[in-house]
Fold this sequence. Notes:
By secondary structure, this protein is mainly α. It has helices spanning 6-22, 28-43, 49-70, 75-106, 122-138, 147-155, 157-160, 168-176, 182-216, 223-255, 272-278, 281-295, 302-320, 324-350, 352-371, 375-385, 400-418, 422-429, 433-452.
Amino acid sequence: MVFSSLQFIFIFLPIFFGCYYMVPNRNKNYILLIGSLCFYFVGTINNPEYLILFIISILIDYIVALGIEKHVKYKKIILLTGIFFHVGSLVVFKYLGFVLMELSKQMESFNFTKNIVLPIGISFYTFQGISYIVDVYRGNIKAERSLLHYAVYIAMFEQLIAGPIVTYKQVRKELYVKKINRLSVMEGIGTFIIGLGLKVLLANPIGKLWTQTCAIGFESISTPLAWLSIFAFTFQIYFDFWGYSLMAIGLGKMLGFQLPKNFDYPYLSLSMTQFWRRWHMTLGSWFKEYVYIPLGGNRKGFIKTIRNLMIVWLLTGIWHGAGYNFILWGAVLFIILVIEKFFIGKWLHRYSMAGHLYMFIIIPLTWAVFAIDDIGQMGVFFTRLFPFLSQGMESIFPNDYIKYWNLYYPFFIAGILFSTKIPFQLLKKIKNKTIITVILLLVFLACTYCMYKGLDDPFLYFRF
């Protein structure tokens, strides 16, 4: 069950919020936990053991945190036990299948064909669990005595599957006292609809160009179509994930929670350094707080700064998935960020036109590495982007881009426009609530029609 589906919007939400708003504040956490577990169960209905894994994960975090406070002498061992469980779960369910498949390719006597299904949301709820027990270990927060409250923190359905990554201290107050009023609910509904529109009306249709290009085969496409397709993916992944994050934030407001912002117009950035401060901000904050700074950050000299950056970006790549392309993607980002940090970063921010032109080229190139999991096909695609690398190989259909440009140019225009602040600044200037209501209603009806027609594609980040 995804947010951009008729089942979620017209069945789950009315039933859930009908119960949630009817009960008094002291009982809302019970409804939220039951609803969230039901939501997760639907997503794991073909693998119910993953719901058990999820519940065990919650119980272990709860026990570990209490153990850290109670047994101070052994708190480091207890902490490492909790971290080992989370990292071990990720390794087994997210990476073991890939490793065994690679071994089977290299060893004839070893045959592994079983597909290990990735438990939905595991990359996100494990990071939240680790952040919680580490914060308790550091003394930044007190261990939660109420199992109900901790379970709600991890299981909240609005951010369970694909973030934002929320730390316990960010929502602790709301777990006890929820301030829900008409204004917060209406703001939440509006935010949800905007996110839904970005996902259904923009990310889904423009993403089909990338899907079609992959189906055609990179060997057969022209250079213009290669660039069009990777720009289409660039817009798809942004509006897909930003749309999800906005929907999560909107649902949070309706529930009485203030979830952290996850995007800040990253495509307006002047450097990749700035871009990754604006893209998936909660993931970047997590790696900074729980990996980069503990390693020493930039406080221990040039060599160790480089080492720490390399570790963070390789882990960032690996976190996104099991594949050589993710490792390569993390390594490429590391190299770019080091070059910016020590050489060209200040220049890019001083000359904004150069910065924007640089990012116009570098962003889609890095997403190409991210998107193509076959390294050989990645090489073919780059020969299409840069034909001088193709050693005379020509496109079968040199004018193929004309057809696809005529089909998709409205979405490219919308993608460029909504990558800026202009539409949202204009919306804020509208003081007439009736006009805003009509706009949101039209967006919602358009989304409903598209979902009815079957255009409710899963979110890209569900894969990670």
